[in-house]
Amino acid sequence: MLDNLSRYRGSAGSAARRVLAALALCAATFGLLVGPLSLTAHAEGNASTFVVDANLAPDGTLKVEQTITLTGGVPAELSQRFETRENLLGDRQYIREITAVSASANGKPLDVRVTREDPFTTVTVPTGGASEIVMSYTVVGAVVNIEGGTALRWGLLQGLSAQVGEFSATIAIPGMFSYVKCTAGGPNSTTPCAFAASGTEGSQIPTFRDGPRGEREVVAVDVGFVPGAVRANERIEYLWTVNRAFSAKPLQLGLALGLLVLGGLGLFALHRRAGHDAHAGGEISKAGEFVPTGPGETEFRVVGDVRPGHVGTVVDERVDPIDITATLLDLAVRGHLLITELPRASEFAQTDWTLSRWENAVGNVLSPFEKELLDDIAPVGSHVRVSELAGRVHESIGAVQDRLYDEVVKNGWYERRPDATRNKWTQIAIGALIIAVVVTGVLAAFTTFGLVGLALITLGLGLVFVGQEMPARTVKGSALLAGLGALRSDLLSHPTDQMPAGQELRELSEVLPYAVVLGGADRWLDAIVASDTDVDSDSMDLSWYHGPEHWHLHDLPDSLRNFITTVSGSLFSR
């Protein structure tokens, strides 16, 4: 069996070799038949000679006349593609312009078609069946600056739509040259051409010869000149790139850094002048304090009629929802308003409250913003649900804020309204930022000074920040701010179990609105809860907050947190 398998493999290998040999014979036969045909087709329309007679003017203008002799089948059209944009290092391009293009055959002009599609300019000439075509053109931009003089650099043969058997060229030059070079081959070839000479001593006319050359191949000449012999007419165009637009060269970087430094100093001076609080000189103006009333007992007293709404506005220069909500709590504690928590319609229903304005409220006089707030939310004798607040105060809450801003100015804590001043500077800053962005776009698009634009944008952002710090507090405002810092410290650390006996609920309630604004509300709520020593329902124990049936004081923390969150959202909802 093994012997049979061996014979089978041998016969199979022999058959495979016979098939391969037959395929090779067919391929060779096909090549013999097709080869002459392909060579003949390739030879049609070739240029047997390509003769150039060029003249270089002192101003760098190069005039070229070239005579193309065609052999074989003359093509209907002959085209030559010139590279008129050449990429250089550093995101640059040489720009060359071809003008005055003309062509003739047998002394008769031909219709020449010139098309420009960067980086090439293509000249198409209808041959009309003529075997000799004379074409001339002028080049501007072919003479470039080099170290120690100038140089003519141009492809006398380039982009021709036919093969060239023999190339020859002469260039009449206006002055002394320093070197003559010539390269041939594909574009960007560095291979020397067949012949390059400077002419004779009496007639210095650079001469070049090469060939044969394939379709679209190049013969480029490079003739150097001593200074003053030929004027350079190079035109260099810079390409747009991010690196070039935002160049970090010494000039651009120095200008950007200088602008940042000067602009930063200007912003600092502006902030010191218009946004930095006046120095209080160690003076402290108290808004509230804990005053001893007996051994181990203290009571909270408001100083200077500074209310929670004032406190929040002086602290952060803004009328926030929490400032208005704390004001409502303060008005309730002072006897102008009653907050009543309503029973829930179901276990998962949202909690609601009624705000009731007392008809004959007594006590301290209301400030203008407090009266505005009460009149808008709960007119005298009315009962309003918290769930209805958004619809009632949507348009009037702005007037309350205006009154409060006016009061902080009237009380001497600010020279100007914080909101108006801040809005003014914010608008200026946004305008400056928009201008900076536009300037940056222009600089980046057309120059290399994009970093200067980025510096302007940075300064614009800095102005936005400074605008948010406006306005500055006065000496009186700075003194009050220092006093509020001391009050906050007391609210966070003062013992909560030192209120006069029998007056705990009233005294602790007076502290609560200030703690809501400044911090420490939880510990004062816990103190109210701790004052409840019985197991009875406490729904009416507080004069300013009533709960539903079976409500206890230990429910107050959760009830009040819910109330603050709900009211703050309702007052400023849109």
SSE topology sketch:
Layout: H1 2-43, E1 46-56, E2 62-71, E3 77-83, E4 85-88, E5 92-95, E6 97-105, E7 108-109, E8 113-117, E9 120-126, E10 132-140, E11 143-146, E12 149-157, E13 164-172, E14 177-185, E15 195-197, E16 207-210, E17 218-225, E18 236-238, H2 242-245, H3 250-275, E19 288-294, E20 297-302, H4 308-316, H5 321-333, E21 337-341, E22 353-357, H6 368-377, E23 383-385, H7 389-393, H8 397-410, H9 418-446, H10 450-468, H11 475-493, H12 504-518, H13 521-530, E24 545-546, H14 556-571
Features:
2 domains; 25% strand; rod-shaped; 4-stranded antiparallel β-sheet; alpha+beta; Immunoglobulin-like; disordered N terminus; 574 residues; 8-stranded mixed β-sheet
Molecular structure report:
The longest helix has 42 residues, at 2-43. The protein is rod-shaped. Helix 6 (368-377) runs antiparallel to helix 8 (397-410) and helix 11 packs across helix 12 (504-518). By secondary structure, the chain is an alpha+beta fold. Helices cover 40% and strands 25% of the residues. The model is unreliable at 1-43 (pLDDT under 50). The termini are far apart. The strands form six sheets. It has an eight-stranded mixed sheet, with no helix packed on it.
SS strand fraction: 25-35%
Overall mean pLDDT: 88
Q: Could you say which structural class the secondary elements and strand pairing correspond to?
A: alpha+beta
Largest sheet: 8 strands, mixed
Low-confidence stretches: 1-43
Distance between the termini: 97 Å
DSSP, total strands = 24
> Helical amount among residues, as a percent range?
40-55%
Quickly count the domains.
Answer: 2
Shape: rod-shaped
Strand order of the largest sheet: 7-6-10-2-1-13-16-15
> What Rg do the Cα atoms give?
47 Å
Number of helices: 14
